[in-house]
Every structure is written in structure tokens, then in C-alpha cells.
Specification:
By secondary structure, the chain is mostly beta strands. It has one domain: Beta-galactosidase, Chain A, domain 5, CATH 2.70.98.10. The strands form seven sheets. It has a nine-stranded antiparallel β-sheet, with no helix packed on it. Strands 1-2-3-4-5 form a five-stranded antiparallel β-sheet, with no helix packed on it. The radius of gyration is 19 Å and the shape is globular.
């Protein structure tokens, strides 16, 4: 079960970016780049044992410098949106970059996805991994506190991609970390995922105000809405429904309130691709998961092998705390204090049927 450094690229500014390959004994193989901690490829067997790369991305590591869709990368210091790019802690206001209209998205202009992470290969009984380290200095992108972050990707013998997050700070701050992989269980570049069957273990979601996707603060039942995935449902079945929330996002781009809540490693979602037979099960300690159906991919961006990824050719299941939590007192807190430890785990488990 090796971890190999398989490539190094030099960026225009002289920065060296490394690519690591992890594999287990059951057919899973994953490439990770040190720029943004990107999951560059993830090869998974189908029902016949044939491998396909099930994540969207780029051939070259240097292309992750721009990466407007955030393919495969670690998102931080705050995943998702913060309204009007401002929040307060203990009466002090912190202003962030407005990089999503009037709002702040995915950590700002140079979030964790655009930072170089130090890497170390690790191996334990559960499998092999790559441990990534980054220190976000006090004031970076406007956030308070010197935040030391460790993210470990594991490939286990149970055919899981397990992601463990850890962070400490020297000053009170906010934190919300996730991975932004775009999954297509038929294989990246193979067409839309509208036939993928999705189940989410959530009875409610956080509706948004408008196309800016800032939550209203309401926790709304999925009952009777096109956002109800409590039973396995093809993604395309209701995505074109005349429902205000779907119009705002041009499809699904919503945070679901998971039944198990924060701190419990509970089942979050299950995806089945009838064409390949591949199944992906998601478990997390996070209280929410953002379903995004790649609504804004338009074929203009060249991905792996020159593929032009189009609208709805992937889905993201971004485990997280809720969007805009620093400004929503009723949402689970994202505050991290000095002396506390931030920990979070998400597991993507693959099988075929």
C-alpha cells in the first residue's frame, strides 16, 4: 500500500508543487497535489472491476492556481459564504474579501485552495495516507488568529477515502473546512450526473434569500419540496421544477441539515450510478452537507484529457457547518477559541453493485 511522489511541477514564481499517489489493495488509487491539497484523481472500480477516474480536475498541477470551480481542493478558512463579507467576534468587526458579488466565498481571494501545503506520507493499520500542513497567519484574508491546520487523506482497505481535519488557533476565530471534489461515478467527462440516484439523510435544509445563496436563517422541512432526497431519487427528476430555491441556484446548491448533527460520525448521503454500478456513501461529523450540481460549468473550461466539463456533469457533497454561521446565532457555532481543538472527519466509501 504505497505512497509515492510521482511528479513535481515548477510554477512561474518558482514554487515547487508535488503530486503524490496513494493506492490500497482493492483497486482504489488517488493522486493528491500539494497546491490546495487537491484531490487530482480518484480511480474507483465499477461492478466489472474496471477503473475510472470519478473526480473532475486538471491534468497539470499548475492549473490548480486559478481553478475557478474549486475542483478537488481544501476549502478554508471558511467554506461556503459569509454575508456581505463581514462578521463580528466579541464586538470587533472583521472585513473579508467580497469575491462573490457582495459576499465572501470559500475563504477569499487566496483561500486554502490556493496555498501550498507541506506534505508527509503516513501509514497505519487502517491504510495509507498523506498528511498536509498549513499555517494561516493572523490577518490572512482578513481572519483573526494564527491558525495551524492539518488535513489527512487516507485510503483504507475498506475502500474509503477518509479525510481528517485538525486545527488550533492563538486567537478567537471562525473556521469551516471542507473538500470540494466534483464527483461523477460514471467517470469524469462522461456526461451529466442527472441519472445518479441520491439519498440525503436530512429532513430539512437552510433556504437562501436569493441568487447570492445567503441563508435566511430558517430551517425548512424538505417535505413536499424538490429538495427532498430522503429516499433514493435521480438527480434529474426534479431539478427543473418551478421552485424558487432551484431558480436561485440554477439547480441544487443548498445546505442540508443532517439528522445526526455535529460531532457524531453519521451517515450523510448515498449516491448510486446505475450505469457503472458504483456507489458512494458519505459519513461525516459535520452538521451539514452542501449539495451542488455543477450548475455553473458551461464547457468553457478544459479539464483532464481536454474534456470540456458542462453543466451538471458532476455533483459535490461538501460536508460542512452551515453557510454564514458567524452571522446566524441560531446555527451551530463555527467559533474556535485558543486552547480548543477543531476536529472533523468525513468518509467517502466506494463500492459497486
Amino acid at each position: 500500500m504505497p505512497v509515492d511522489q510521482v511528479d513535481t511541477e515548477i510554477l512561474p514564481d518558482g514554487t515547487k508543487v508535488d503530486r503524490y499517489r496513494l493506492s490500497n489493495g482493492r483497486g482504489l488509487q488517488m493522486d493528491v497535489g500539494s497546491l490546495g491539497g487537491a484531490v487530482v484523481s480518484l480511480k474507483v472500480p465499477d461492478a466489472r472491476g474496471d477503473l475510472a477516474d470519478v473526480v473532475l480536475g486538471f491534468d497539470s498541477l499548475r492549473e490548480y492556481q486559478a481553478n475557478p470551480p474549486h475542483f478537488g481542493v481544501i476549502i478554508g478558512r471558511y467554506a461556503n459564504r459569509i454575508a456581505h463579507a463581514v462578521f463580528s467576534l466579541d464586538g470587533q468587526e472583521y472585513r473579508l474579501a467580497k469575491n462573490h458579488g457582495e459576499h465572501h466565498l470559500h475563504g477569499g481571494e487566496r483561500g486554502f485552495d490556493k496555498r501550498l501545503w507541506a506534505a508527509q506520507a503516513v501509514e497505519e493499520e487502517q491504510g495509507v495516507g498523506i498528511k498536509l500542513f498549513y499555517v494561516s497567519e493572523d490577518g490572512e484574508e482578513g481572519y483573526p488568529g494564527r491558525l495551524s491546520v492539518t488535513v489527512t487523506y487516507w485510503l483504507t482497505e475498506a475502500n474509503e477515502l477518509r479525510i481528517d481535519y485538525y486545527a488550533v488557533t492563538d486567537k478567537k476565530t471562525v473556521i469551516n473546512l471542507t473538500n470540494h471534489s466534483y464527483f461523477n461515478l460514471s467517470g469524469a467527462g462522461s456526461g451529466t450526473v442527472l441519472g445518479h440516484e441520491l439519498q440525503i439523510n436530512a429532513d430539512a435544509f437552510t433556504p437562501v434569500r436569493d441568487a447570492g445563496a445567503i441563508p435566511t436563517g430558517e430551517i425548512r422541512s424538505v417535505e413536499g419540496t424538490p429538495l427532498d432526497f430522503r429516499e433514493p431519487t435521480p438527480l434529474g427528476k426534479r431539478i427543473e421544477s418551478d421552485y424558487e430555491q432551484l431558480r436561485y441556484g440554477a439547480g441544487y446548491d443548498h445546505n442540508y441539515v443532517l439528522r445526526d448533527g455535529a460531532g457524531v460520525l453519521g451517515d450523510a448521503a448515498r449516491v448510486h450510478d446505475p450505469d457503472s454500478g458504483r456507489v458512494m456513501e458519505v459519513a461525516t461529523t459535520e452538521p451539514g452537507v452542501q449539495l451542488y450540481t455543477a450548475n455553473h460549468l458551461d464547457g468553457s473550461l478544459a479539464g483532464k484529457g481536454g474534456a470540456r466539463y458542462g453543466q451538471r456533469e458532476a455533483l459535490c457533497l461538501e460536508t460542512q457547518h452551515f453557510p454564514d454561521s458567524p452571522n446566524q446565532s441560531a446555527f451551530p457555532s463555527t467559533v474556535l477559541e485558543p486552547g480548543e481543538e477543531f476536529t472533523s472527519t468525513t468518509i467517502y466509501k466506494f463500492s459497486a453493485e
